[in-house]
Amino acid sequence: MQKLLINGKKELSGKISISGSKNATLPILAATILSDQVKLKNIPLVKDIFTMVELLKFIGLKVNVLKKKNIIIIQNLDKNIKTLAPYRLVKTMRAGVLVLGSLLTKYKKAKISLPGGCAIGTRPVNLHLFALKKLGAKIKIKNGYIIAEAKNGLKGANITFPSISVGATENAILAAFSANGKTVLRNCAIEPEIKDLIKFLNLLGGKIKTQGRKFEIYGCTKVKKNISHEVIFDRIELGTYMIAAALVGKKITFNKINSRVIQNEINILKKMGVKLKSHKSSIEILKSDNIKKINISTKPYPNFPTDLQAQLMVLMTRAHGTSKIKESIFENRFMHVPELKRMGANIEIKNKTAIIKGPSKLSGAEVMATDLRASVSLVLAGLVAENRTIINRIYHLDRGYEFLEKKLKNCKARIKRI
Ligand code: EPZ
What's the pTM? Predict the structure, then answer.
C-alpha cells in the first residue's frame, strides 16, 4: 500500500495547473453511449475515469485514451452492445449508475448493479429511479441489480425532483435525451459539471434549455458525428489548492480557470482574511497571516460545496476563534475529524456540525485516509503541520486528484509517495 510522506511548514510559491473536472467527465463519458464518434479533451487521468472507461468498453464502445494529451476518443459502432453495468465495475465507482439513463433511452433496456453506499453515506438512487419511472421506464430491483426497460421507448414527462440531486438530475437528462417528446425537469441540481454535460449533449444534437433549476429537453433522434468537447476545469481541485495556498502559501497563481464559477468560495475565503486577487481566468493567493473564523453550511451549488468541507475545516483550525461547518448533504462526511484531532486540531461534532476552535498548532502524525476529500484534507494538514505526516491508503486520493504530489512539489512542497 502506497503512502504519502509530507514534511510540513514549508512555504509554497509558484503556479498550480488545474486539471479537467472528474465530476463533469464521468456523466459526459456516460453520455458518449448516445454518440457516434466523440473526442473529449482536458480529461483528468484519475482512477475513477479509468473505471468508467472500463465500463464503457464492457458495454461495447471503442475507447482510446491518449494519456500524453489528456484526450479520450470514443466510438459507438452499435455492435454487440451489452446493456449491463456489472457489480465489479459499479461497486468502486458509483457514478457507473449514470449509464442507466443513456442505455435506457437508446437501447430501451438496462441492467445496472445497484451502487452500494460508500464511506460518506448510504448514497441511495431512489431519485434516479423516480425520474426514470416518470419517463415511462418499468423498473424492478433483483439480486442487487436495477432492471429497467421501456419497450416502446421513453416518453417525455413533467418531473419535479422532491430534493436536489446531482446524479439523479444527470440520469434524468440522459434518459430524456432520446425520449419521445418534451421533458421538463424542475428543482434540478445546477452544478457547473451539469452545465458542461448539457453543453456536450447540445453539441451532440440535443436541444436542452435551462432556466435556473428548470430544464427543458426535447427528444433527439439524430446525433451529430465527430464532435469534440473540452471538459470544464475541476473547481473542487482548484478550491482545494486555494485552501493549501491560504494555509502555507507565499504566492500561488492559478491560470486557465473561470473565477465566476467559484465566486462563492472566493467570497468566503476573502471573508476569512485570505489575501486573494481574482481575475476572469486566473486567481492569485498571497501569504495570509490573520485567518478569521466563519460559520458555513454545505449546500447544493451555487452554495458552499460539500466536496470542499473537509478542506475548509483545515483552514478553520488556523482561524482565530470558533468556526462552525454544518454538513447538510451527506450523513457521514466527518471521518477526517478524528485524524485532524490526532494532529492537534480542536474540533467537536454536535449533530452534523463541526465546531473548530483555533488557532491550533498542528503536528505531524501517521494518519489514515478514508474517502477522497477527507484524504486531501489530511494532505493540507500535513503541509501546515510541524514535522512529518504519513498518510496511509492514498488510493482514495488517486481517485480524484491528478498528479497531486507533482503539482505541490512544483511549488516547493516537501511531499513524496513511498
Ligand atoms: C455528486 O454525487 C458528486 N459525485 C459528489 O462528489 C458530490 O459530493 C455530490 O454530487 C454533491 O455535490 C459525482 O458527481 C460523480 P447527490 P451524487 O445525488 O450525485 C441524496 C466527490 O468527492 N440522494 O447530489 O451521488 C444523497 O444521499 C463526490 O467527487 C438521495 O437521497 O450526489 C445525498 O444526501 C463525493 N437519493 C444528497 O441527495 C438519490 O437518489 C445529494 O446527493 C440521490 C441522492
Answer: 0.97
